[in-house]
Amino acid sequence: MFEAKRSLNKDEELAAIKGANRTRGLCFVCPFHCVMDYYVKDGSLVYQKGADDAANQGSRCAKGLAASQLVTDPDRIKFPLKRVGKRGEGKFERIPWDEALDMMADKLIEVKEEYGPEAVLFEYGRDPGVNFVVHLLSELYGTPNIFGHTALCEMDRRLAALTVYGHVYPVRDYANCNFAMLWGYNPLNAPQGLYEQRELINAVDRGMKLVVVDPVFSTTAEKAQEWVPIKPGTDGALALAMCRVIVEEDLCDHDFLVNWTSGFRQFREHLRERNYTPEWAATITEVEADTIIRLTREFATTKPALMENFKGLGNYDNGLDASRAVYILNALTGNVDGPGNLILKDWVPLGPAVSIPEEAKAKNEKPPLPVAMGYPLAPDLPSGLVPKAIMEDDPYPIKFWILFHRNKAMTEADPGAQKRAFDAVEFSVCFDLYLSETALECDLVLPAVTFYEMAELKNNLTLHPQTVISQPILDPPGECLPLSEVCKGLAQRLGYGDYFQWETWEDWATRQLEPVGISLQELKERGFCDGEMRYRRYLTDGFATPSGLVEIYSENFEKHGYNPLPEYREPKVIPDDGYPFRLVHQKSSVHKQSKTQNLPLLMEIESENWMEINSADARNLGIQDGDYAEVESPQAKAVIKVKVREGVRPGVVCVRHGHGFGHWGLGSVAKGKGTYINTLLATSVNPISGGTALCECKVKIRRV
Ligand SMILES: Nc1nc2c(c(=O)[nH]1)N[C@H]1C(S)=C(S)[C@@H](COP(=O)(O)OP(=O)(O)OC[C@H]3O[C@@H](n4cnc5c(=O)[nH]c(N)nc54)[C@H](O)[C@@H]3O)O[C@H]1N2
Ligand SMILES: Nc1nc2c(c(=O)[nH]1)N[C@H]1C(S)=C(S)[C@@H](COP(=O)(O)OP(=O)(O)OC[C@H]3O[C@@H](n4cnc5c(=O)[nH]c(N)nc54)[C@H](O)[C@@H]3O)O[C@H]1N2
Ligand code: SF4
Ligand SMILES: [Mo]
Q1: Rounded to an integer, what distance in angstroms lies between the CA atom of residue 391 and that of residue 421?
Q2: Rounded CA separation 623/30 (Å)
Q3: Do residues 141 and 178 share a domain?
Q4: Atom in ligand 1 nearest the alpha carbon of residue 312
Q5: CA nearest 145: which of 377, 363, 398?
Q6: Cα(543)–Cα(289) distance, integer angstroms
Q7: How is 73-109 classified by DSSP, letter by letter?
Q8: Closest C-alpha residue for ligand 1 atom 12
Q9: Within a domain: 3
């Protein structure tokens, strides 16, 4: 059995040895907040470890540990900066906060008068403090346009889960599961919290069957009993054929279907009419029909079980329906929200940090951008379409663009279009730790704090409801400020100062905790607070879909003119003779997206990214392991290091995302290391979810 290696010392002993103060906090590097113990002495962080009694059981990953280098990174920006040179040129001048806030407030007033409040767009990559922005810019000032980065991330999965289950973010109960099939999901490489990795490995160890559907023999596939090396972009066909086998062989959970789902009959007819048979799917997916039938029977007869998918499906233009079909498989077999299933997790009722009376709230006259862009069901902003909005005033003018914790100029597909949008927009602000590529394009750059320097209360993504807390344990360098304080300064200038009143962060945190039932003092000491884990909440509450049922057939889709049942379409981009390979992506296991490449500890482990290619393909191209190759799409080309592997499907190449962000004005460690690949990608937006399909890309490869 896999056992976490625990610290030999008790927390208090450690603190005494180090002569340091221990504070409970969070790791904020990825969104799956592991609970931490931070030891601070004389204003410096001297030691950090995972909290023993939390779900991460004393552990922290390499990214989390190295994050302490964010604090002391000499490349951090420490003062507000105003652009004085051309965009992208990197010429800025230091200005006082008062001047930066005055500039922003004046611009906010001017834009509202001339174009309306909706002309202000705030985009964030991570959300510490974004609740203050919602209070200020949405509730008071009146823009409906405050959005995250979901379009680049799990937009299709999110809309699929909302449509089928009425839940925004299901999580996985491996501990009680006997059969798990993961589609385009690689948690042992790119974890969603260390507890998930541990639970998955423990479950496999206990005998849970793990099946991984992935064109690449991923880290998770390595631990699975079965790897299904599917042809990229064809998961929808596999999932629909599995649905059909369950229906035709009557492997359904009848009670669940009758009592808790809608649209089964229409779905059965649809599967028959479209002839979604295993044989049909075999020709598309290149997974044998016998394998499809066998895996379906195993899944449907092993209880409890779960089917889960993540970014690997949403990276294709047809990913939304593929994801829906995967979720319908759980519904057909009654594997929903019970022990060992996908859990429709319950949330902690955190209150607002700022209370604004209803009568003071602005009335948003214009619809939010996703609706105005023609994506009424999109759960977040179709962010790939922002350049069009800015450059063509379509659907309406966007004049003031704020980017927080978001490297928009680099992490989107077609970064050239993003840069043109920065040129076109009237005023732009970037709020970051570094002078990132996005910051270089902006008029104003604001120095942000790390999670070691700020307070935040959050709902964690654990199976049960859990409140977690980030406490400021270090003073920020220079004049770095959290978003809460920036909003306070702006609120005063915009005439909303009365609502943004607090002496210390404890004042607003206490307000937020009121509905939760734990005091701030206790939460500070414990670091987390668990709510009750309740399986099958639907038995009392129903599902949060329009019908209160699991929706196999979506009337909401029908109302908006979309097919109410999931269907299979070919992926948008198909490799051809000119571009014979399909380019897919994975995360780096020791880096987090584009934000850890300036940390020396991590760059020592992985200083450049690479492309994996099948050994037969490599032989044909005369490429050997460790060589560099040119990879070219219809959009652009790049040179990247190659790793030759058996475990990549022939015709597929797999690149790690995150490196090659070499243009940083300040980024001395990151600069020039690895290969940036997003220039190879064209923007492909899912017509319903608005998600960006990052793997709709064909390439040719040449030895250099
Ligand atoms: N270490 C680390 N961990 C992270 C992150 C990080 O940057 N670094 N990022 C976090 C974030 S923001 C996210 S969104 C999650 C993402 O978590 P994942 O979705 O697990 O991450 P990806 O690496 O994008 O992996 C997607 C998988 O899909 C596979 N794939 C590609 N095409 C197809 C296909 O057509 N069909 C199928 N079935 N599979 C396909 C890829 O080979 C890959 O193994 O990870 C989070 N965790
Ligand atoms: N080719 C390719 N592109 C991808 C992906 C892929 O797999 N392949 N993955 C996609 C996915 S899943 C996602 S989620 C997106 C992520 O894309 P983004 O949302 O743009 O996020 P990050 O890459 O994490 O970059 C965040 C920025 O935040 C800054 N930052 C770091 N810490 C802090 C902080 O504490 N405060 C503030 N204010 N700023 C901070 C960093 O310096 C960086 O400039 O990328 C997507 N892009
Ligand atoms: S898994 Fe994420 S939250 Fe946990 S330690 Fe690693 S980076 Fe931090
Ligand atoms: Mo993501």
Answers
A1: 6
A2: 35
A3: no
A4: 28
A5: 398
A6: 34
A7: -TTS--S-EEE-SSTTT--EEE--HHHHHHHHHHHHH
A8: 153
A9: no
State the greatest distance between any 2 C-alpha atoms of the chain, in Å, as a whole number.
Answer: 72
Sheet arrangement for strand 44-50: 21-26, 35-41, 44-50
Domain-embedded: residue 545: no
Query: For the domain that residue 138 is a member of, what is the CATH number?
Result: 3.40.50.740
What distance in angstroms lies between residue 293's CA and the mean position of ligand 4's atoms? 32
Please give the average per-residue pLDDT across 305-313, as a whole number: 97
User: According to the model, what pLDDT value does residue 593 have?
Assistant: 86
Render pLDDT for 449-487 as a digit per residue (tens, 0 to 9). Answer: 999 999 999 999 999 999 999 999 999 999 999 999 999
Q: What is the CA(320)–ligand 4 centre distance, in A? A: 16
CA distance 77 to 86: 19
Domain residue limits at 301: 171-343
Any domain includes 52: yes
Task: Specify the 3-state DSSP secondary structure of 223.
Answer: coil
528 lines ligand 2 (CB under 6 A): no
Beta-bridge mates of residue 429: 402, 444
Q: Which residue has the tokens 């409890």?
A: 304
Q: What is the mean pLDDT of the chain?
A: 95
pLDDT at residue number 6: 46
Mutate to test the pocket of ligand 3, among 26, 28, 32 (most ligand atoms within 8 A of CB): 32
Pocket test for ligand 3, best of 26, 28, 60 (most atoms within 8 A of CB): 60
Which phi and psi (to 5°) does residue 145 adopt? -105, 70
690 within 8 A of 368, measured Cβ to Cβ: no
User: H helices within 116-218, ranges in order?
Assistant: 130-133, 155-165, 194-206
**What predicted TM-score, i.e. pTM, was given to this entire model?**
0.97
Q: 587 CB less than 6 Å from ligand 1?
A: yes
- How far apart CA 421 and CA 437 sit, in angstroms, is 14
Residues 190 and 588: their CA atoms lie apart, in Å, by 7
Q: Is the minimum distance from the CB of 187 to ligand 3 under 6 angstroms? A: no
Report whether residue 432 contacts ligand 2, using a CB cutoff of 6 Å: yes
Q: How far apart are CA 48 and CA 553, in angstroms?
A: 49
Distances in Å between the Cα of 16 and the Cα atoms of 6, 38, 58, 600 are 18, 13, 18, 29
For 143-155, the three-class secondary structure string (H helix, E strand, C coil) is CCCEECCHHHCCH
Tell me: do 142 and 186 sit in the same domain.
no
Q: Near ion ligand 4, which residues have CB within 5 Å?
A: 153
pLDDT at position 89 is 81
Strand partners, 304: none
C-alpha 188 to ligand 1 mean position (Å): 10
How many Cβ atoms are within 10 Å of 72's Cβ, its own excluded?
12
